[in-house]
Every structure is written in C-alpha cells, then in structure tokens.
Amino acid sequence: MELSYEDIKECVPHDSLSRAALDEFDSYFAGCDCGPLALCDDCNDCSCRKHTPLAYEADGRLRAEYLQPSTVLPPVMECGWTCGCKGRCLSRVVGRGSSLQLQAFPAAQKGIGLRTLLPIPSRSFVCQYVGEVISVEEAARRSEKHRNDTYIFTAQEYFGNARRKTCVDARKKGSLARFLNHSCDPNLAIVPVRLDVSVPRLCLFAKRDIMAGEELTVDYGRHEVDDGLSAAFSRKVCACGSSNCGGFLPFEETLFDDSIDEKGSLVCTIEIQ
Ligand SMILES: C[S@@+](CC[C@H](N)C(=O)[O-])C[C@H]1O[C@@H](n2cnc3c(N)ncnc32)[C@H](O)[C@@H]1O
C-alpha cells in the first residue's frame, strides 16, 4: 500500500484525458440569477431547479431516495460560483464543505483506515473522493500494475443508454478519503454531485447514523457468489468482519478480464434519469 501522497482538496485532471474531457474542467454552467437571499428550493423559480430537483433537505442532509439501491435518480446538481444566490441557498452542501473531523488509523489486515472523531447523522455529506481524474485506458493500465492495491474509484453513470465513466485515482494525489476501506455492510454511499462543471465529484454520504470513533467504509463494487475460483485468481480476502461478508474484496474478482471496470477498479454504478 502507498502511504505517501500529495494532499489535494479537489480533483485534478490528468494528461491522459482527451481534449474534450480536459475542457470539461473549465466549462462552467451558466448558473441561476437568484438573489443573495434565495433558497433555490423546489418552490421558487430558480433556473438551476428547472433542470434538477433539490437533492437536499432543509438541514442539508441528502434526501432519502438518493440512498435507495437500484433507483433511477435525477443527477445531483448544486448551485455554484456562477449562481447569484449566496449563504441561504439550500443547494450548496458539497460546495460548503464539511466540518467533520476524520482521522487515518491502523486498521489491522486492511492497512490504514479512516474513522470519524465526531458522530455523523444519517444522510450527511462526509467527504469527497479526490484524486487525479484519469482516462479509462490509463485506469486500466494503473490497475493492472497495482492489482491488489488500487486507489482508483470508477463511477459509472447511465443517462438512458449513454454511459459515462469517471475514474479517480488517489494513489499519488488525494485526501484522507483515499484511506476508506471496503465493507460488505458499509456505512457510507457514494453519490456523484455536480457543481460548476459537468465533471462529477464523487461524494460520500452517511447511509445511517455513525458513532464517533467508528471506521468509515464504502462498498467497493459488485458482490457475486464465490465461484470457487477466488484462490486461483489471487483475490484478496476481505477483512471487513460484517455478518454478510462476501469473503473477498469484490473489485478484484475479475482482474484478468478485458474491460476497465473489471480490472481491479472500485466501481459504483448509478442510473440517472
Ligand atoms: C483505497 S485503499 C484503502 C486504504 C488502504 N487500506 C491503505 O492502507 O492505504 C484499498 C486497499 O485497502 C485494502 N482493503 C480495503 N478494504 C479492505 C478489506 N475489507 N479487507 C482487506 N483489505 C482491504 C486493500 O489492500 C485495498 O486494495
């Protein structure tokens, strides 16, 4: 595992991205022209809300439907710096950041893990998975190289029949979120959130109330019944300790397949309306 990394606050584009993908980092949404006191909720005429409903409750927590498995959801889009609204806007949660205190700690067989020093209410924004945004081909190359030890998270979003993959590698550049370990019964869920530009931010929200001192975990990918090939394919034994543990880290089961999302990358799949 890789302990030294450059600490960054936001994702950075990598040269492996196409010109069009690089341009997305600088192409800002028009934003709403609401006044500084606007709430930008579903009850006013905010132009941002005409595209997507407000994803948050008044206390800033994500609406429950966004954490339901297998639901088709509208994308989460927040107001950003091109918008006229300011402090009262209810659509600025990731944009405001988090005041939670997170800490890396030794997590036995899992290496380093991440825990919270404060209680976290269910559906609160916890942190962003930041790193280098790399091309699918570069993700395939890197995950082949590091196999049992990857920091790449691939979000797959489906917009009807179109699929968009966003690959974020926190190996060399990242934040404390890079220490999130896998659990088959995780307390965090990953949700792509957009503000300012169309490149999604991979954001982690609490699936339930989390106590101070608890390890923060996420599900790295798909779960399949063990086909007996785990040992032959050198899959890493999962040490999550949950009662429904699948036995092996899910993202490593098809390391020797051809497609990028089966090459050891952590995968989340989201269907968007
Ligand atoms: C994104 S890193 C997480 C941080 C890592 N533990 C570290 O020390 O840097 C992913 C790697 O952590 C380890 N890991 C994560 N969850 C695990 C689990 N449930 N059981 C065993 N190892 C795990 C695996 O080596 C995996 O490739």
User: Superfamily at the CATH H level?
Assistant: SET domain
Termini separation comes to: 38 Å
Instruction: Report the oligomer.
Output: single chain
Mean pLDDT: 86
Helix-strand makeup class: mainly beta
Shape: globular
Bound chemical compounds: S-adenosylmethionine
- Total of helices: 3
CATH C-level category: Mainly Beta
**Strand fraction band?**
25-35%
Q: What count of domains describes the coordinates?
A: 1
Main beta-sheet annotation: 5 strands, mixed
Known CATH architecture: Beta Complex
Rg, Å, rounded: 19 Å
Question: What helical percentage do the residues reach?
Answer: under 10%
Task: Give the strand tally.
Answer: 15
Order of helices and strands: EEHHEEEEEHEEEEEEEE
Low-confidence runs:
223-227, 252-265
Q: In order across it, which strands form the biggest sheet? A: 2-7-9-8-15
Describe the 3D structure.
Strands 2-7-9-8-15 form a five-stranded mixed β-sheet, covered by helices on one side. Strands 3-12-13-6 form a four-stranded mixed β-sheet, with no helix packed on it. The protein has helices spanning 19-23, 47-51, 136-146, and strands at residues 6-7, 12-13, 76-78, 102-106, 112-116, 125-128, 132-134, 152-159, 162-169, 173-174, 181-182, 188-195, 201-206, 215-218, 266-272. Mean pLDDT is 86; it is low at 223-227 and 252-265. 8% of the residues lie in helices and 25% in strands. It has a single domain (6-17, 69-76, 99-272), classed as Beta-clip-like (Beta Complex). The chain is built from three helices and 15 strands. The structure holds S-adenosylmethionine. One of its GO terms (cellular component) is chromosome. It is found in: Chromosome. Residues 98-221 form the SET domain.
